[in-house]
Amino acid sequence: MKFINWLTFPIKYSFSKLKRKFGKLDLVRMEVLLAFGNEHEIFIKGRLVEAYKQSNPSPKKSALQNFIATLRRYAGNSVSDVQVKLQFQDAEKLLVSNEEGLFEVKLPLNVTENKSVECAQLTLIEDEGIVAEIKTVRFIISRYSTNTPLGIISDIDDTIIISHATSLGKKLWLSISKNAYTRRPFPGVSTFYNYLSNDGQNPVFYVSSSDWNLFHLIQDFLEYRRIPKGPLLLKDPHVTLRNIWKSGGGSHEHKLEKISQLMTLFPKTKFILIGDSGQHDPELYTRIIETFPNQVKAVYIRRIKKVDKEREDRLNSYNHTIPIAWVKNSEEALTHAKSFL
């Protein structure tokens, strides 16, 4: 679906500009994608798109109904160059959506009192050709203490949700024929993650190469499968004429960048890293261990392909003080976790 998104982006972007110029732009929807921080700063990310009708997921939906829902999810035009006002505590900040409709801000806080849950609001600044579906959106910011002892950083595809990321045909079929309620998790994932998070006491951050169009699907999936919810750090399209013809997942360097940001944001937290052997998680986590050796408590890699002994030995030998478990299933991972947590 990324290829389709990249391929159609220039058309959708130009069409949106023309519709706005002639006053034919649909109502603009404001979506909050990310809202979390610590005692000292918060991160807000959202996007503006033309309002589109999206059906609710259901176990009874057919493959055709899910395919239509997928088309709607990717067909929405981003709305660029529009101002949004953020209000949080006593602070106000004007943000502007980029060519992909995305806006984001890192906001330092003057008040260091840490409440675990706080409210903020975004107001869309209506202009010529811009009419909000809902002008002001209020939302929750999750703030975690820098003294949080344990946190979890997890991949999504082929780590918690069966995606067949290494098989383009199977991955595409799952993407277009299933919804949040019919996509399957790996057995035992809910039990394993709830144990690690201590039923929500330890924060869970999900870092994935999925794009923001899948935000609501992933959120609904986590809730439906009773897997601990947490901030989703997904991949920006960064669409340019140079990369528009690329297919597949592209570079996963953004995952390294986002995990590094989490380590820096919570310097006293020990993190458990969870991924799979299908793509680059073992190599990415090796680089994280190299940079933040005192902040990695353990690493879990789900084996989804045949054993690559050389690859496993490389990660295993990198730091003998950090438990590294290559597991076949969640039950095996849970047994290992109970032995040292």
UniProtKB/TrEMBL annotation:
<protein>
    <submittedName>
        <fullName>Phosphatase domain-containing protein</fullName>
    </submittedName>
</protein>
<dbReference type="Pfam" id="PF09949">
    <property type="entry name" value="APP1_cat"/>
</dbReference>
<feature type="domain" description="Phosphatidate phosphatase APP1 catalytic">
    <location>
        <begin position="151"/>
        <end position="303"/>
    </location>
</feature>
<dbReference type="InterPro" id="IPR052935">
    <property type="entry name" value="Mg2+_PAP"/>
</dbReference>
<dbReference type="InterPro" id="IPR019236">
    <property type="entry name" value="APP1_cat"/>
</dbReference>
